[in-house]
UniProtKB/TrEMBL annotation, chain A:
Stated name of the protein: Branched-chain amino acid ABC transporter permease
Originating species: Gemmobacter lutimaris
Record's GO cellular component terms: plasma membrane
Compartments where located: Cell membrane
Keywords, comma-separated and alphabetical: Cell membrane, Membrane, Transmembrane, Transmembrane helix
TrEMBL record, chain B:
GO biological process terms, semicolon-separated: L-amino acid transport
Family note: Belongs to the ABC transporter superfamily.
Origin superkingdom: Bacteria
Gene3D superfamilies: P-loop containing nucleotide triphosphate hydrolases (3.40.50.300)
Keyword Repeat attributed: no
Record domain ABC transporter: where: 4-237
KW DNA repair (keyword) present: no
Keyword terms, alphabetized: Amino-acid transport, ATP-binding, Nucleotide-binding, Transport
Protein name (database record): ABC transporter ATP-binding protein
From TrEMBL, chain C:
Xref: Pfam families: BPD_transp_2 (PF02653)
Keywords: Amino-acid transport, Cell membrane, Membrane, Transmembrane, Transmembrane helix, Transport
Cellular location(s): Cell membrane
Name used for this protein in its record: Branched-chain amino acid ABC transporter permease
CDD domains membership: TM_PBP1_LivH_like
PANTHER family membership: AMINO ACID ABC TRANSPORTER PERMEASE PROTEIN, BRANCHED-CHAIN AMINO ACID TRANSPORT SYSTEM PERMEASE PROTEIN LIVH
GO BP of this protein: amino acid transport
Length: 350, 239, 302
């Protein structure tokens, strides 16, 4: 006999597998049928999956919107740049780096891991203060944190290069590398969501007061989710840097924050599948709009959307989703195998 | 014609049914008590009449006009006023400001000053504390303020939800005393939610007993008091 | 504290207070943290000039005589905010505060990019009221005339707003609705009326900030509302969410702290002034999560 509970758990366990297969199919299809631009889009999309799934670990489980996660991506991107760039280049571009970093010339994988760890450490430190605030006030504080990181990065010229870009990052991020990290993020997110801490945190999402009355230490679980969440945003930032090869602080500021939020809202903040589906949906829409902005020919005339209309359209779509489908495309549901598939053979004696 | 008519009213919260198939009428100038155990649907009924709660189906009429679906702001304009459960005083506003909030819907501006005078005469304590923040009043004083505040909209029908909640018996006597004399003075139609059927019998009027979202009895409150032991046993919820 | 520093602190803090009031008014009546407020400010700035992507700005509304110009821009700000309310926030009336906040963020992005499409991304010089930079001698200090005007205007606005809230019908209804919206509606207070009114006031306050910023910097920039909106947010949190006097007090305090940091920090650290400011605020909130100026015993509702 298999209890209802165990069936649910087995079904839930199929979610990350199915999401990983979905992304695999996405990469395979774009590489097989798309042009070079489509290949680039595939890598970009998968990097965003890492970022948004990371973001979801905190926002989805806690119900608190953070505006600060782009800052973790920023820190991650620069940590990876500091540790992997050619020392000769760093001597001219970033003369203020401490000697240990100035001479570092690491392999990209430990650099990406370190990027995530540094972002996580920063989250642990700042979250300890920010997450003591209740819901909306915490959101505002994360926004202040984002602005703080941006101000520091834009002005700390000897170490960050200031507003001018840091160039020459090794461009190792192929769609397959990005897929690997995206799948890792999805696995970690579903493991966290199923953990005792994830369950407790989602209980507080519905009702802060009731949850604290039942003895759940909301603050501790929020902090844990925030830290884990920042790790993947840090890694995502590093990947984004090594994908384009050029980073600057404004690349990890309001536009990225907006994009991450839009993806989460469109897909639905209530489930991990919502986060992944949201990234795919918005990325495809952005790609289509970018091509429209470049112009297309219809008969004898060429049409082009004015630059900037991409953001306007995405923003309006986001508002429409909030009004007409507040729970997003996935409406809080997970993609999972139906019950009869996971009960296996020989259990149909009922 | 009945002042207030409720026809086949149903209220649901998600899958939970609070009221089903409820019908009754209230005559002009009548005093109607709604009684029953917790969860009987008394507050949902008042919520639906006042427009704060949306009815799943059914019709609510006042003077033959349909109120259902109008929303609280417009129902208040039709002359229906509410003294809500827990009083819901604006604690940061002064007593006088509390009284004035509901006068925005009135066209008879000149009569507002008279009504304020009436309220202050009925509840002298409110005159003494007119410029004090309402949050500083005692529970009984807040109940009186809530009643006076509802009267300032110049209603024809007034709904009062559990005016005795959390008040000492002597204060409850006082509240009902004022409520009845104001009703006589203004020719109000009153619908009062009151847990205690003995209290309702002492004040006097008609009484409807609710249980599980339906009406189980309807009659003179004094008659219920005679059968008090029975109803108390029936509800298992001593008031 | 030197006299010059005092004037710096007052004029900066005054503008922060006006911006914070714009946020707190709306939060009070509908629990919306309006992330589009910064873009309301930017739109009011660009309303002065004609849409074009040229580098030089051609004045449009900005050509009006000063009193008319001020009225026109205040009206523009109020109208823009009311339109935003009717089109975006009214359909979201029953949504959670989180959904409202995210919606306002999206609206802000849409408005900012609309400005980019209409005006291009480069900052534009606007020559308006150039004479206001002239210094005035007050005792031992030389103070720009503009600072004195700003301080006077802020005082006048605070008094007028206080009077309006305390004495007018709309003010009474707004205060009642801020405490208990459902109860106010039961008393016949019209939700649309009160919320539109709050947005109109907030938009007009955004326009005031816009005019002051243009006069101070002489530039129109698509991004110019962002930084002051952030300060205004911080002021509303520090002031206790939704408390108007708290927002004003916190705005002034942040202005003073900012002026002091600007004067006190060594040269090398000055570009990081705002970072120090934000860190200071997060630190303050660690010890008083309910805000500095929240009434004793008041519990955060959000």
């Amino acid at each position: 006999m298999i209890t209802q509970h165990r069936i649910r758990r087995r079904m839930a366990a199929t979610t990350p597998v199915l999401l990983a297969l979905l992304l695999l199919a996405f990469v395979a299809l774009t590489l097989a049928f798309g042009d070079r631009a489509a290949g680039r889009m595939a890598s970009e999309t998968l990097i965003r999956v890492t970022l948004v799934v990371g973001f979801w670990i905190f926002a989805g489980n806690s119900g608190v919107i953070s505006f600060g996660h782009a800052a973790f991506a920023c820190v991650g991107a620069y940590v990876s740049a500091w540790t992997t760039l050619n020392p000769a280049m760093k001597a001219t571009l970033l003369p203020g780096l401490p000697p240990a970093l100035a001479e570092a010339h690491w392999h990209v994988l430990p650099a990406a891991l370190t990027a995530g760890l540094v972002a996580a450490a920063l989250a642990l430190g700042t979250g300890a203060a920010i997450l003591r605030l209740s819901g909306i006030a915490a959101s505002i504080a994360t926004f202040a944190f984002l602005a703080m990181v941006n101000t520091i990065w834009a002005n700390w010229t000897p170490v960050t290069g200031g507003t001018s870009s840091v160039v020459g990052l090794a461009r190792y991020v192929t769609p397959w590398v990005a897929l690997g990290w995206a799948v890792a993020a999805i696995l970690a997110a579903s493991l966290y969501a199923a953990s005792a801490s994830g369950l407790a945190l989602r209980a507080t999402r519905e009702d802060e007061v009731a949850a604290s009355a039942s003895g759940i230490d909301q603050y501790r679980h929020r902090l844990l989710a925030y830290t884990l969440s920042a790790f993947f945003c840090g890694v995502g930032g590093a990947l984004a840097g090594h994908f384009i090869g050029v980073i600057n602080p404004d690349g990890f500021y309001l536009s990225l924050t907006f994009l991450m939020l839009a993806m989460l809202v469109v897909g639905g903040i209530g489930s991990l599948s919502g986060a992944v589906v949201g990234v795919l949906a918005v990325s495809l829409a952005v790609e289509a709009l970018v091509r429209l902005e470049k112009g297309f020919t219809l008969g004898a005339t060429t049409f082009a959307l004015p630059p900037g209309s991409q953001e306007i359209i995405i923003a309006l779509a986001m508002i429409l989703v909030l009004v007409f489908r507040p729970a997003g495309l996935m409406a809080g549901r997970e993609i999972m195998l139906p019950a009869r598939w996971v009960t296996g053979r020989g259990t149909s004696q009922n | 014609m009945a002042k207030l008519g409720i026809h086949d009213l149903a209220v649901r919260y998600g899958k939970l049914t609070a009221i089903s198939d409820l019908s009754f009428t209230v005559a002009e100038g009548e005093r109607l008590f709604i009684s029953g155990p917790n969860g009987a649907g008394k507050s949902s009924l008042l919520g639906a009449i006042s427009g704060a709660v949306r009815a799943a189906h059914g019709r609510i009429e006042m003077d033959g006009d349909i109120l259902s679906g109008l929303g609280p702001e417009r129902i208040a304009r039709r002359g229906l006023s509410m003294v809500p459960e827990g009083r819901r005083i604006f604690g940061g506003l002064t007593v006088r400001e509390n009284l004035m909030v509901g006068t925005g819907i009135r066209r008879d501006r000149a009569a507002v000053a008279d009504d304020l005078e009436t309220a202050f005469t009925a509840f002298p304590i409110l005159r003494d504390r007119a410029n004090a923040p309402a949050g500083a009043l005692s529970g009984g004083q807040q109940q009186m303020l809530a009643i006076a505040r509802a009267l300032m909209t110049n209603p024809k029908v007034m709904l009062v939800d559990e005016p005795s909640l959390g008040l000492a018996p002597k204060v409850v006597d006082e509240v009902y005393d004022r409520l009845c004399s104001l009703q006589a003075l203004r020719g109000l139609t009153l619908v009062i939610v009151e847990q205690s059927s003995t209290r309702a019998a002492r004040v006097g009027g008609r009484m409807i007993l609710m249980r599980g979202g339906r009406i189980v009895a309807d009659g003179d409150a004094a008659g219920f008091a005679a059968a008090d032991l029975l109803s108390e046993a029936y509800f298992g919820d001593p008031a | 504290m030197s006299l010059q520093l005092l004037f710096d602190a007052l004029s900066l803090g005054g503008i922060y207070a006006i911006a914070a009031l714009g946020i707190a008014l709306i939060f009070g009546v509908m629990k919306l943290v309006n992330f589009a407020h910064g873009q309301f400010i930017a739109c009011a700035v660009f309303a002065l000039i004609l849409p074009s992507t040229d580098a030089v700005a051609a004045l449009g509304l900005g050509l009006l005589p000063t009193p008319l110009l001020i009225l026109a821009i205040l009206g523009f700000g109020a109208g823009l905010a009311m339109a935003a309310e009717a089109l975006v926030f009214r359909p979201l009336r029953n949504a959670s505060p989180v959904a409202l906040m995210v919606g306002s963020f999206a609206l802000g992005v849409a408005l900012q990019n609309l400005l980019l499409v209409l005006y291009g991304g480069r900052p534009k010089a606007i020559s308006l009221w150039a004479g206001l930079g002239a210094p005035v001698q007050i005792g031992p200090a030389e103070v720009p005339l503009l600072q004195l005007i700003v301080i006077a205007a802020v005082i006048a606005i605070l008094l007028a707003l206080g009077l309006m809230l305390k004495r007018s019908r709309l003010g009474l209804e707004m205060r009642a609705a801020a405490e208990d919206f459902g109860m106010a509606q039961l008393l016949g207070v019209r939700a649309n009326h009160v919320i539109s009114g709050a947005f109109a006031l907030s938009g007009a306050l955004a326009a005031v900030v816009a005019l002051v910023m243009v006069a101070q910097t002489g530039v129109a920039d698509v991004r110019m509302g962002g930084q002051i909106m952030l300060i205004a947010f911080i002021a509303t949190v520090v002031g206790g969410m939704g408390s108007l006097p708290g927002a004003v007090a916190a705005g002034l305090a942040i202005g003073a702290a900012s002026a002091l940091l600007q004067a006190g920090l060594p040269d090398a650290a000055r570009p990081f002034r705002d970072a120090f400011l934000y860190a200071l605020v997060i630190f303050v909130l660690l010890f008083r999560p309910q805000g500095l100026f929240a009434a004793a015993g008041a519990k955060p509702r959000v």
